[in-house]
Amino acid sequence: ARAQVDGKLAQLRAFVAVAENGSVSQAAQALSVSQSAVSEAVRDLEADLGVRLFDRHARGLSVTQRGHQF
Length: 70
Fold this sequence. Notes:
This protein is mainly alpha-helical. 69% of the residues lie in helices and 11% in strands. It contains four helices and two strands; from the N terminus they run αααββα. The chain has a two-stranded antiparallel sheet with strand order 1-2. The protein is globular, with a radius of gyration of 11 Å. The model has no long low-confidence stretch (mean pLDDT 93).
């Protein structure tokens, strides 16, 4: 159960960091984790919620309306 909570917290931290920084690479730097860890956490959170939280662009990510609601 603790690992599940830690995983959810990592997903939430990744979401906030990407939303604040606008990119996975900058979010990863801010969190001191790999870019792949941030990408995976965001993808997993989106899958868990069943909604897209970010629009992906060549220059980064932007929060969707659903992401703002979340």
